[in-house]
Write a structure and sequence with these properties.
332 residues, mainly alpha, MetI-like fold, 2 domains, two-stranded antiparallel ribbon, 17 helices, 75% helix
Length: 332
């Protein structure tokens, strides 16, 4: 019996040793294959390296500074030497009367931007896709792309030239037609429409690039089959063109929802004045005012962190809804 037990133990040890050896060989084989794969595409990964370094240095490394949202940050003491206060800055912000005003202003501008600025590039892409003259199509594309390369300073400067109460072309035209004087730039009711119009004029043309790229993958045979079936132009757009770019539309919508609280500092800040501040103050401008001009670094960091968390929640929520509507849509 003892000999059988010893033999059984020896067999078990041998099998265990073989399994470990096989696992080691399998691991070595995986590393070898992985090394060969990276070596085969080494130049592609070399091109990827600057992007990785950029994100590591300027996107991920500064995230360590987010900890000051939970501290009473004093620059002379540094991040580690500052006093820990937990969620005190968040409670202070939520109890502040500015919270409701900032949140409502930001959400209104953001949802107006998505509801107006988001569909227009899709419409432009569909219309450009229907053009048969390649020369005319390239000319239109160039014209609508140009505003994207203008800075917000130039865009706001052009807006002031057009709508200024002293010599503005549109202001003078309005006065000559109605006999009344209207200060477009200082009217709180006109602030949001002007912001949305600027966003549409500057970004609509550039936004068509992704949708035109998606439309370029649509097989011409689908259009030919639709024509044979008697479908008109609008039917072809509805049943062929739009379904082909639906996944792209959903992904772009999810990404837009993620940055919904990021209304754009430059544009809002340059368009804000003392008369329209009640509707112009948003999270971006408020963080600048509190954090930079008043030196409340911890408080402003807490506001920025809150905005980022809301953006993550909106991304996940939109992605979840998109998957429930269409299983092939979504990011995750």
């Amino acid at each position: 019996m003892d000999n059988k037990a010893e033999t059984q133990n020896e067999l078990t040890k041998t099998l265990t040793a073989k399994e470990k050896l096989n696992d080691i060989k399998e691991t070595e084989s995986r590393f070898s294959n992985l090394f060969k794969y990276f070596w085969k595409y080494k130049y592609l990964y070399l091109l990827l390296l600057p992007g990785i370094i950029y994100f590591a240095l300027f996107r991920y490394a500064p995230m360590y500074g987010v900890i000051i949202a939970f501290k009473n940050y004093v620059p002379f003491l540094g991040i580690n030497g500052s006093q820990w206060v937990g969620l005190e800055h968040f409670r202070q912000f939520f109890d502040s009367p500015d919270f409701v005003r900032l949140l409502s202003n930001t959400l209104i501008i953001a949802f107006l931007g998505i509801s107006v600025s988001f569909p227009i590039p899709i419409l432009l892409a569909v219309l450009l896709n229907e053009l048969r003259s390649s020369l005319y199509k390239r000319f239109i594309q160039t014209c609508i792309y140009i505003p994207h390369f203008l800075s917000w300073t130039i865009v706001v400067g052009l807006t002031h030239l057009l709508f200024s109460i002293n010599g503005g072309v549109i202001s003078d035209l309005y006065t000559s037609l109605t006999g009344n004087t209207l200060n477009f730039l200082a009217n709180p009711e006109l602030f949001r429409p002007m912001i949305i119009l600027q966003q549409v004029w500057k970004g609509a043309g550039w936004g068509t690039i992704i949708f035109l790229a998606a439309l370029s993958r649509v097989s011409p045979e689908q259009y030919e089959a639709a024509i044979i079936d008697g479908a008109g132009r609008f039917r072809r757009i509805w049943h062929v063109t739009l379904p082909a770019i639906r996944p792209t539309i959903v992904i772009m919508l999810i990404l837009s929802m993620g940055s919904i609280l990021n209304t754009g500092f430059d544009q809002i800040f340059l368009m804000t004045n003392s008369l329209n501040r009640s509707v112009a103050d948003v999270f971006d401008t408020y963080v600048y005012t509190i954090g930079i001009t008043q030196g409340a670094h911890s408080y402003s960091t807490a506001i920025g962190l809150f905005r980022s968390l809301v953006g993550i929640i909106l991304i996940l929520t939109t992605d979840f809804i998109a998957k429930r509507v269409d299983k092939d849509s979504g990011l995750f």
